[in-house]
Amino acid sequence: xxxxxxxxxxxxxxxxxxxxxxxxxxxxxxxxxxxxxxxxxxxxxxxxxxxxxxxxxxxxxxxxxxxxxxxxxxxxxxxxxxxxxxxxxxxxxxxxxxxxxxxxxxxxxxxxxxxxxxxxxxxxxxxxxxxxxxxxxxxxxxxxxxxxxxxx
Length: 152
Hints:
Elements: H1 13-17, H2 25-34, H3 40-50, H4 56-67, H5 76-90, H6 93-101, H7 107-118, H8 123-130, H9 134-151
Helix pairs in contact: 2-3, 4-5, 6-7, 7-8, 7-9, 8-9
C-alpha cells in the first residue's frame, strides 16, 4: 500500500489507541503495511493482533508460557500498552514520512531515522547502538523534524 498520508490516512489518536474498539479496516491495513519497518519481535506482535485478530490476553499467555520464568513473562496490561505504543507510532505522520523518505537520505541519517523513529529507540539508546555521539544523533533527529515540518 503506497498511499499518501496527507489525505485520508490521518487517524484520530483517541480512536486509534482504544483497543476495546474494533479497528477500522483501513487503520489495520495501514498498520500492517508500515509494520515491515519494525524489528521482528514488534512486527510479529502487530501482525498477530491486526492480521490474525488474536486477543492481547492470549498473546500475553503465550509469551508467559514460552518465557518459563517470571522475569521474562509479560503481563496483559504491559503487552496491551506495548501494542498501543506500537500502533500510535505506526499511524503517526512522522513514521509515515520517514518510511517514505528513508531511501533518499544519507546513510547516517537513514540509520538514525530507523533507530529513533521506526524502531522507537531513545536518542541515547540509538547513539549507543549506532556508535554515534549524542550530538550527531540529536542533530539528525532535529533535521528530520524540520524536514517533516517543511513537508507538511
